[in-house]
């Protein structure tokens, strides 16, 4: 009976996977592809043509947008992965996974838009960094006439992406190290006279990279198609391709819909080409690595470079924490004249005056976050319990399918979904936005929960069955209590992902569902820094509060059970 129930649960999981992920993405892509090739009857375009592509090529700045997209995406991903690997190579064995998880949590919890606004507050000509060094080191009595945010080269966007993605890659690498006998290999290499970092990069990292390949691809896809961070930090005229496509979709001129659809398809092609190029680069690096290993060498001369990269990572982490702190400071600032290093007066009146706006946005953010996270947890438990009862995995390619919403540019299929929802009469509804958030939350929840679930000692389940417990009783009285800590961690990650969603809220909500993210991104283009600080601080602190609850709750519930209270490494 249990096996039959497991097969039924797996059938439900397959239906959810196909109906909730593959079909909507395919439908959204199709509804975007048609206008890209001249078919959009709503504006009188009824026949196949390449006018959308010729119109796109003629738009001013489109080739610069394409170049900026490729440059910022590839450079930020290369820097993020290189710095994360160098940091792990230097610090592995010196910092426990439990401590690293807690240090990285604030930056992982902070949505991309909030982090970008905080970085803009730091590096702007009148930002906190300029104030700290003025006038005693810079002689600046007024903000300098230099471009540090929205710079034409996109370097500020690269900085923001690296600050946000390095902690994510560090956590992914730390999780993958559990599958590698790193300590023994490090000890053997050191006994042979090799440097600590070189052993890690030559021997351990190739084993780890096989397990983190898909997360790295997801980071690359995000960097090549990011919208919210690009609006806040990236070049503005012309912007990167994803921002340009979004603006053309939102423009009042309906004639821009066709080139906007073409730009979305081009964005997908850029991401596919970027991942393909990265895959080819992996082969070249692997071949060069094998040749380097055969050539020998202790690699001690590379240790200073690895230590320098470690210092860079620590500096990036400091920038991330300072960015979050700057949001909080600006939200309580009454007067902060340049070049004062600190505000001359503080107030809570900004929070009070803007309460009607941020309370509504906070309620929507919390509702969507908890709703999409709860749905994702239920679906993940159904999926994994089906695997347990049937004794087999759902589909060989399920991990890749799960990553589809993360690997494909959002702008490439969300417009098509908006069109579909509009025809169905649910465009702009809270339910549509909730589903859109779940589409992106579920992959993260599933990936965070699947390994701990599958690592649970099956002897517990067999013992419960021998004592007469039903599979359902075993699930609720044994599995879920034992997995409380990973369940809460997955929930915290899911909530943070939901709180960070910008384009799904904007497109599927038709601009009628205000969240902290949509309001913060809208305000970031201009206005009072104190108001921006209120929304961005809330956007950063609410997911952090959820993270704090997720990490502390097991310790309170299982205070007398050392292996369950979340304290052990």
Automatic annotation (TrEMBL):
Residue ranges occupied by any ABC transmembrane type-1 domain in the UniProt entry: 62-277, 362-553
Record localization: Cell membrane
Gene Ontology biological process terms in this record: transmembrane transport
UniProt keyword annotations, A-Z: Cell membrane, Membrane, Transmembrane, Transmembrane helix, Transport
Coiled coil: none
UniProt xrefs under InterPro entries: MetI-like (IPR000515), MetI-like_sf (IPR035906)
CC terms in the record's Gene Ontology section: plasma membrane
Membrane topology: Multi-pass membrane protein
Annotated TM spans: 7-30, 68-89, 110-133, 153-177, 214-236, 256-280, 305-332, 361-384, 396-417, 429-449, 482-503, 532-553
Record protein name field: Putative thiamine transport system permease protein
